[in-house]
């Protein structure tokens, strides 16, 4: 049924049985007739197709007595996301209730990353991270220590029965070297994991799976 057929149906409707407009959600689109759950009902109703709605799509229905016709798929906010697409909301909404006969997977505790270096559907990352030794930036913990061999100074000379001959003051310090031996230092740090997330605001995210 196309727009022309729908216009004819509207123009030629029986005044004693006027057409009624209803809304519903497609439960099954695999047969020759759609199976639609009209708003306010729980059971499906066979509906004549007019277009190519998918399961979970919202449709406008014309009711001609006992015959139901799906005349249009509802777009805009009333239309559910396609299978594989996300539904992001800041409200407390369950898409299973908003769009009956659809199935959803709730995404929890994850950010969304555009594909590129990472393939679509892969997961990774962590909320907190403790640096391993290999991840610590290279740095030096060796103190500069100097040492020396110290000999006490004294005077030297000769003493005879009649004279005292004095010498000079011997060098008191010798063998001064820089000591390159490693010495342990006092440890610091707590080895605790750090928060690894950018600033964020939390929304409910659902992925339609059926």
Can you characterise this structure?
This is Baseplate structural protein Gp10 C-terminal domain-containing protein. InterPro entries: Gp10_C. It comes from Gordonibacter pamelaeae 7-10-1-b. The longest helix is centred in the first third of the chain and has 9 residues. The protein starts with a helix and ends with a strand. The radius of gyration is 43 Å and the shape is rod-shaped. The strands form 5 sheets. Strands 3-2-1-4-5 form a 5-stranded antiparallel sheet, with no helix packed on it. A hairpin with a 6-residue loop joins β2 and β3. The protein contains 2 helices and 14 strands, in the order αββββββαββββββββ. Among the domains are: 72 residues, Beta Barrel (OB fold (Dihydrolipoamide Acetyltransferase, E2P)), CATH 2.40.50; 40 residues, no CATH class. By secondary structure, the chain is mainly beta.
Report strand %: 25-35%
- Which stretches are poorly predicted, pLDDT < 50 over at least 5 residues? none
CATH topology of the domain at 3-74, which one?
Answer: OB fold (Dihydrolipoamide Acetyltransferase, E2P)
Number of DSSP E strands: 14
The helix count comes to 2
Oligomer: single chain
CATH class category of the domain at 3-74: Mainly Beta
CATH architectural designation of the domain at 3-74: Beta Barrel
Biased composition (Polar residues): 176-195
Protein name: Baseplate structural protein Gp10 C-terminal domain-containing protein
Domain Baseplate structural protein Gp10 C-terminal: 83-209
Pfam families: Gp10_C
């Amino acid at each position: 049924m196309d727009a022309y057929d729908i216009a004819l149906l509207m123009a030629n409707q029986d005044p004693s049985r006027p057409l009624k407009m209803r809304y519903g959600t497609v439960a099954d689109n695999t047969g020759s007739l759609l199976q639609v759950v009209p708003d306010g009902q729980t059971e499906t109703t066979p509906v004549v197709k007019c277009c190519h709605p998918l399961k979970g799509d919202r449709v406008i229905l014309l009711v001609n007595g006992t015959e139901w016709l799906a005349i249009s798929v509802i777009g805009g906010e009333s239309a559910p996301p396609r299978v594989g697409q996300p539904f992001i909301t800041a409200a407390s909404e369950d898409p299973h209730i908003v769009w009956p006969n659809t199935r959803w997977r709730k995404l929890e505790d994850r950010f969304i990353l555009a594909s590129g270096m990472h393939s679509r559907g892969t997961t990774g990352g962590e909320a907190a991270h403790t640096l391993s030794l290999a991840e610590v930036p290279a740095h030096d913990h060796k103190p500069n220590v100097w040492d020396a061999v110290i000999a006490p100074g004294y005077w030297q000379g000769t003493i005879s029965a009649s004279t005292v001959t004095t010498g000079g003051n011997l060098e008191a310090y010798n063998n001064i070297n820089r000591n390159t031996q490693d010495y342990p230092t006092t440890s610091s740090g707590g080895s605790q994991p750090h928060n690894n997330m950018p600033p964020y605001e939390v929304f409910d995210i659902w992925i339609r799976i059926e």
